[in-house]
Amino acid sequence: MKHPLEILQLPETMMRYIAGVVLYLTLSSFAVESRDLAGDVIKLPSEVTEFIRGDTDTDTDDDSVGTRWAVLIAGSNGYWNYRHQADVCHAFQILKSGGLKDENIIVFMYDDIAFNSENPRPGVVINKPHGGDVYEGVPKDYTGDDVTVGNFLAVLLGNKTALTGGSGKVVDSGPNDRIFVYYTDHGGPGVLGMPTNPYLYANDLIDVLKMKHASGTYKSLVFYLEACESGSIFEGLLPEGLNIYATTASNAEESSWGTYCPGEYPSPPPEYDTCLGDLYSVAWMEDSDIHNLRTESLKQQYELVKRRTSNDNSPYGSHVMQYGDIELNKKHIFLYMGTNPSNDNYTFVEDNSLPSPSRAVNQRDADLLHFWHKFHKAPEGSPRKFEAQKQLLDVMSHRTHIDQSMKLIGNILFGIDNGPGMLSVRGQPLVNDWDCLKMLVRTFETHCGSLSQYGMKYMRFIGNICNAGIRKEQMAEASAQACVRIPPGSWSSLHRGFSA
């Protein structure tokens, strides 16, 4: 028999095993003795079971190894898109309260909302009707024309030499670090919006995530994505084995939704005529605001957000999805976002009391809602009334132009009987040849003007044209026939387009 001092020198795993056996025998004996008294075997506490089995996630609360990094990006501009920058500012406040340092949080936003002449509270941004200011203290890392695809991808890769403008901050992570990425904006099948051109294609994002993994500079990465058809960014494209867990606001075929919008319930303060947040984004952030993220897992948050974003499976909601290495959702959110110490005593409640909207607004219609309320509230005969009317007519004219152009191109290329069918869902992934997709988009915009945020919904149609073997020359001829000229309105300007 070993001397007690010799036992103390045994490996830690052996010590855990011996202690577990002793504890198991002790509790088992107690359980057997209690059977006659209680009428049933007393179950071991879950903590003890995990201890004996050795399956505790030992790094769940380990804040001493590795660094948390975060990249937050709002991919739009314009006051009618207020909600995207409000989402990003709110996300920053959660991470800041969670203990992340400013140097490890990289923020992309156009920064034209807080001091916009339309903002009823200059210098203040809110993300819910009775919420406080979320703008204060937010780093201005990449603003204005520095919010680009190139800078975003360079930041993810930690490639300072590829940056053009901005603060120069990048994700300079190491192999033990964890990364959280949150992106909110308009989107379409296989594409995400940007306030500058070009937009971000799914294959380019996936390629960069693969490169980041190959560099060995992170332990795991979590990606939260808010956009229409956001599931198409990862569906059939994001492989397992990269230690990446992604959730999206919608599946590959549906819109995402704005919330806290004028005329809806709950609505913003009466002086606001724009949506304050996005449904999926508000769901995960308001959940993070109130829970102890040391004890809440990514999976638990996913389930809560999924229920709230579906809006009881009403027409005013979407289906939250998850992709990549799904098993990572067992990890605690704390590993990526930290946790607010004031929430330490909060226990997780699966059916929380966070409100669901009676209705929400389709992301692609939020601009129309803004211009309508602006027009409706403006005094008769005022310059504001005239401006709002012009903005409303411009965006409606642009939508009509895009719809008619796409319909005509389909009929020219495939005939009246087959053209409409090309708009149908192909399935995953979006397209066989991404270079073809980008080329045909550039060809369309050359002849017809920018697709803009509304025209993103036709990316699947253009992908189907590629998959049918249509060449650039054919697309150019069809586009030239469909579009006699590029409309003069700002929405058709190529500054809003996909083209480089």
TrEMBL record:
GO terms for biological process: proteolysis involved in protein catabolic process; vacuolar protein processing. One of its GO terms (molecular function) is cysteine-type endopeptidase activity. The keyword Signal applies. The active site is at H186, C228 (nucleophile). Transmembrane segments: none annotated. Residues 390-483 form the Legumain prodomain domain. One of its GO terms (cellular component) is vacuole. Keywords: Disulfide bond, Glycoprotein, Hydrolase, Protease, Signal, Thiol protease. InterPro entries: AE, Legum_prodom, Legumain_prodom_sf, Peptidase_C13. The keyword Transmembrane does not apply. Belongs to the peptidase C13 family. This is Legumain prodomain domain-containing protein. It comes from Tetracentron sinense.
